[in-house]
């Protein structure tokens, strides 16, 4: 277990979240209908179900239709949220979409979502922090609401990774799927959710996980410039199992709590073996970890909100639970938040 300062547990988190003024009031999610199983991949590349499960824990993933893109995933997730919760988006202040797979360079995915719903007064911005995007988006939204600049912000984590996957590369095509998750943050002076945040980056790892756009070189390094994801799995693994435990320790220290106080751990669902290693290094209970890796694969910015919504729909998350969310990915970037779960607007 990570050694952290001995304090009076949950009561002490109130002081750390004193400046926060936001809470999550609604959530929605969506994955495409098409299922790509490990058996299907056996017909595409040299692999096997046993090999994939043993190394990643993935059994299937969802894949976009040919005419379905990131903004469509976002729109479907928002529609799911509106169908399930008594909320209005007519007075939405800001829309943040965390993605690195928008279908257009300009306009961004957030603008396309705004275009569909016609939010009358909402700004729209994309955030590209790859697999840590949702955590960054949630952190930014909480800060904007807590500062008094905004009162209601929609944060969506979404990626259509199948559009950027090289299905001849057996080391990457087994990993990725498509999906989206959305949460609504509203100002609440009495029951704020945010407790603490920790994040960081190490651009030296850029060469180990990238997708080209305009350039075909990174410094003097020649890149594979076909627009598909290139990943050095070994280096990504080393980064994740090193940076995340250190970040978790810093996060717990900021809040003055221990791993025993964490009700649910929701990491980026990159690879089941990475999650197991992180739990082992931090002392977080794997049995209290929410992920979607087995059914949906790695959906990048969507993995945390998809797992969060899975916890809600299965009745696992309860009011007052302390949730630790931690994203990590290309850049290299990482970001984590401690959040006190509150009741949603039924």
Short description:
The protein has 346 residues and is α+β, with helices and mostly antiparallel strands. It contains 10 helices and 15 strands.
Strand and helix layout:
Elements: H1 13-16, E1 22-30, E2 34-37, H2 38-42, H3 49-56, E3 60-63, H4 70-84, E4 94-98, H5 109-117, E5 123-127, H6 133-146, E6 152-160, E7 178-187, E8 194-201, E9 209-210, E10 217-218, E11 221-222, E12 230-231, H7 233-255, E13 264-267, H8 272-282, H9 293-296, H10 303-313, E14 322-329, E15 333-340
Parallel strand pairs: 4-5, 4-6, 13-14
Antiparallel strand pairs: 1-7, 2-3, 6-7, 8-15, 9-12, 10-11, 14-15
Helix pairs in contact: 4-5, 7-8
Domain count, please report it: 1
Cα end-to-end separation: 37 Å
Superfamily (CATH H level) name = Thiolase/Chalcone synthase
Uncertain runs: 1-16
Helix content: 25-40%
Shape: globular
Overall pLDDT, averaged?
94
Classify the secondary structure makeup into a structural class. Answer: alpha+beta
Number of DSSP strand runs: 15
CATH class category name: Alpha Beta
How many helices in DSSP terms?
10
Write the H/E string, N to C.
Answer: HEEHHEHEHEHEEEEEEEHEHHHEE
Task: Describe this structure as you would to a colleague.
By secondary structure, the protein is α+β, with helices and mostly antiparallel strands. The protein has a single domain, classed as Peroxisomal Thiolase, Chain A, domain 1, CATH 3.40.47. Helix content is 30%, strand content 24%. It has ten helices and 15 strands. The chain has helices spanning 13-16, 38-42, 49-56, 70-84, 109-117, 133-146, 233-255, 272-282, 293-296, 303-313; strands spanning 22-30, 34-37, 60-63, 94-98, 123-127, 152-160, 178-187, 194-201, 209-210, 217-218, 221-222, 230-231, 264-267, 322-329, 333-340. A five-stranded mixed β-sheet has the order 1-7-6-4-5, with helices on both faces. Strands 8-15-14-13 form a four-stranded mixed β-sheet, sandwiched between helices. A two-stranded antiparallel sheet has the order 2-3. Strand 10 (217-218) and strand 11 (221-222) form a beta hairpin. Helix 4 (70-84) packs across helix 5 and helix 7 runs parallel beside helix 8. The longest helix is centred in the last third of the chain and has 23 residues, at 233-255. It is globular and about 55 Å long. It starts with 12 loop residues before the first helix and ends in a 6-residue tail after the last strand. Residues 1-16 have low confidence and may be disordered.
